[in-house]
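Predict structure. Chain length: 359.
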Amino acid sequence: MFLCILILSQMPALSIAQKERFIERFMQMNSFVVPNSINQTMELINHIRELKKEKDAILLSHYYMPAELQILEEEGGVADFVGDSLGLSLEAVKASGKNIIFCGVRFMAETAAILNPSKKVLIPDMEAGCSLASGISAQDVIGLKQKYPGVPVIAYINTYAETKAECDIICTSRNALKIAQSFPNDRLIFVPDEFMGKNLREVIYKETGKELIVWNAKCEVHEQFTKTTIHQLMESNPEAEVLVHWEVPDEAVKESLSKGKGIVGSTSDIISYVSKSDATEFILGSECDLGATLRGLYKDKIFITPCVKCPYMKKINLQNTLDALMAIGTKDEERYLVKVPEPTRTRAELPLRRMLEFS
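Prediction complete.
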């Protein structure tokens, strides 16, 4: 307690209550705090909060962001909204500010720009890409449509704008099953995630008899959660329930659910499952900072989290978020501004709007 009081006394701008709440949330999510890093963190947060007001900007942050970017403004942080891909898409549509700072990877920021042509969307680092999004191109989709004429193409939101423009509808891990079930066709194409496609294919065939044709791209984070890795974690933690994302290899998913203790689903599905479960221990098969999210939400539960970090998500931090805000209205703005050519934007907007009808 003395340490927290000493830290708080050195921090200007935020109220004592906000500072205390931020430190409580940050420590809960991170387990420990280095005092000097907290002081530096709070200085950046103060500046970001001031500039958001000055620049009429809102800040959207994904669950895979570092913990300090996931803490809401009302809790002493900087985020106006924290969520998964679908949640962020919905918030982007409702955004009231002239500017959107998108703390996520580039395909997510592109989605915000596609849905909000009258607003500026900025991303703190243009190099924040995605192995899945890079695993398929617009030309690949055109080739699939030529190979399977008349078969609808469902694209996971983890795709770039030019790829989305060639697809019939976009989905997220939260609404993919509902969207696939909505088509009357006996066959569907799902791109780009091979493992998510295989996981969905089994469920869809069992429930509807539909055939799912899948592409072969992979998430470099989730593919590391192999059957062997999950099995070893389950053996070491026999009382723990298992939480795995749709993007985890299908054999690992089967291993995870072999004892009927856990869930395969979207990030939001995982968070919701934990809230309803009586279990106190969980094995997480997803990005490391989702573990921070869960620890922040459920302080009385234990999360065994192999710390596999997305290198693209971790390109975003408080400093370059501040830099992006400072650049608004200056010659440096171009470095951060997400641009989608209008013909591509118009064509990509249609399948995205179709997706939102299922949200």
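Summary: The first helix runs from residue 2 to 9.
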